[in-house]
Design goal:
By secondary structure, this protein is mainly alpha-helical. It has helices spanning 12-18, 23-32, 52-93; strands at 9-10, 47-48.
Length: 105
């Protein structure tokens, strides 16, 4: 009889170390990715060593896209804030019409 090969699984922490990231960021990636099943509430992810190569490629791409999206959102927010500041400044600089004094009898 042939002995079954026991496949060693890797934990999220071990995979995160291999991808040079934190377990938390790895879990965010895994939940966002369509390539990995969500472990669910209280569930655990389990990986094999053969999963690391494709995962590293997908993770690197995801992280780059995420950083670009965050940068674009920050630039948009800064531009909107600057536009709001310009409107506020214009309103403050616009003179208000003078009021007439009331005649008292």
């Amino acid at each position: 009889m042939m002995a079954e090969k026991k496949v060693e699984t890797l934990t999220t922490k071990q995979v995160a170390e291999a991808l040079d990231t934190t377990p938390r960021e790895l879990r965010v990636f895994l939940r966002a990715s369509e390539h990995y099943d969500n472990a669910g509430s209280g569930g655990r992810y389990a990986f094999q060593a053969k999963d690391l190569g494709p995962m590293k490629t997908r993770f690197t791409t995801w992280k780059k896209e995420r950083e670009e999206a965050r940068k674009a959102a920050a630039e948009k927010a800064a531009a909107e804030a600057q536009a709001d500041d310009a409107e506020t400044t214009e309103e403050a600089e616009t003179p208000t019409p003078a009021r007439r004094a009331r005649k008292t009898a």
